[in-house]
Automatic annotation (TrEMBL):
The lineage of its organism: Bacteria, Bacillati, Actinomycetota, Actinomycetes, Micrococcales. Signal peptide: none annotated. It comes from Georgenia ruanii. PANTHER family: MARR FAMILY REGULATORY PROTEIN, TRANSCRIPTIONAL REGULATOR, MARR FAMILY. One of its GO terms (molecular function) is DNA-binding transcription factor activity. Coiled coil: none annotated. Residues 1-136 form the HTH marR-type domain. Transmembrane segments: none annotated. This is MarR family transcriptional regulator. It comes from the Bacteria.
Length: 149
């Protein structure tokens, strides 16, 4: 069977392969691609609201609540009072969360190498730049509003 021409289908298939490969790599750590993505966002901030996490990951807020609950049960993240808004909680990564994230990152990078094995370094850089343009905040907002950026 030849690869499809439809770019939407290709993006969906590539995403599915990436998630499946990452999930297989993360399973021994009792993580999956969503919990890993959440840990990665938390590892790069000093705390972020659940709403901001939902927006960044393009998930429903109820999904974020469940993900944070799971990380909190494992002491990988915790909710703290938000520094500027008492009505919100800020989610922060813990020391054990950082340690597990470091292990998970190595596994995910290995799974990406496996997934992109047929691409050379220049092709990988091109793919990264193109994907960054697609998921940039301006592009995401334009897509949400139903117009090209």
């Amino acid at each position: 069977m030849t690869a499809p021409e439809n770019i939407g289908l290709l993006l969906s298939l590539a995403s599915g392969q990436g998630v499946a490969t990452a999930n297989a790599a993360l399973a021994p750590l009792d993580l999956n691609s969503r919990s890993y993505s959440l840990l990665e966002l938390l590892a790069t901030t000093d705390g972020v609201s659940q709403r901001e996490l939902a927006d960044a990951l393009r998930l429903d807020p109820s999904q974020i609540v469940a993900l944070v609950d799971g990380l909190e049960r494992r002491t990988l993240a915790e909710r703290r009072p938000h520094p500027s808004d008492r009505r919100q909680k800020s989610v922060v990564i813990t020391g054990p969360g950082r340690d597990l994230y470091a292990q998970a990152r190595e596994r995910v990078e290995g799974s990406i190498d496996q997934l992109l094995g047929d691409l050379d370094d220049a092709e990988r850089q091109t793919l990264r730049r193109l994907l960054q343009r697609i998921v940039s905040p301006a592009s995401a907002e334009a897509a949400r509003l139903g117009r090209a950026s």
